[in-house]
Write a structure and sequence with these properties.
Elements (H helix, E strand, L loop, with lengths): L24 H4 L24 H38 L9 E4 L4 E5 L10 H10 L4 H8 L8 E5 L2 E8 L3 E8 L4
Antiparallel strand pairs: 1-2, 2-5, 3-4, 4-5
Helix pairs in contact: 2-3
Length: 182
């Protein structure tokens, strides 16, 4: 061990740390380009979504659906209100006739036919109104065969309900009303 030099670790006054490593020249230059600009593919920056966007879309769709349903109901109501008046007009019934009358803002049709001892609408006018309202033949048959002993009869179809009675002296009394479909 003679050829080896022995270091003296007890003398720390002469100690100096090793120099820092040199920074390569390419890393030492100040960069003027953003770090992502040197890449070939840049992902577009994602913009933050407005947190109210989805609820706003949902409310808009709901409003459109509700508006469509409201308009459909309004249109159906307008059709119902005019169906009695249109049937009476198509059958050339006089607007001043006391025997065929549209009542209750268009929701009721009242008809009275001629009897042996009373005046009323001709049965041909009532039959015409039945055809215009598309009264089913089963109800028309029951109407034609009703006797005084049968009392008040009832029939329903589409959005209508009809009640009627008959007596030979006073004729038939028919009431047709618009009812809400089930």
């Amino acid at each position: 061990m003679r050829g080896m030099h022995h270091h003296d670790h007890t003398n720390l006054n002469n100690y100096s740390p090793p120099p820092p490593p040199e920074i390569p020249a390419y890393k030492n230059q100040a960069s003027t380009t953003p770090p992502d600009e040197g890449r070939k593919y840049q992902r577009p920056r994602r913009q933050k979504r407005n947190p109210l966007l989805i609820p706003l879309i949902a409310v808009s769709v709901l409003a459109l659906v509700m508006s469509a349903l409201y308009l459909q109901t309004l249109f159906a109501q307008a059709q119902r209100d005019t169906s009695f008046a249109e049937a009476v007009e198509t059958c050339d019934v006089s607007e001043t006739s006391p025997y065929i009358e549209v009542a209750d803002d268009g929701d009721t049709l009242l008809m009275t036919s001629e009897g042996d001892e009373s005046l009323g609408a001709p049965i041909t006018e009532i039959a015409c109104v039945f055809v215009e309202l598309e009264v089913p033949s089963s109800i028309i048959n029951r109407f034609e065969t009703t006797r005084a002993l049968d009392g008040t009869q009832t029939g329903t179809w589409d959005v209508y309900e009809a009640t009627w009675n008959y007596h030979p002296n006073s004729g038939s009394h028919v009431t047709i009303t618009v009812v809400d479909p089930d």
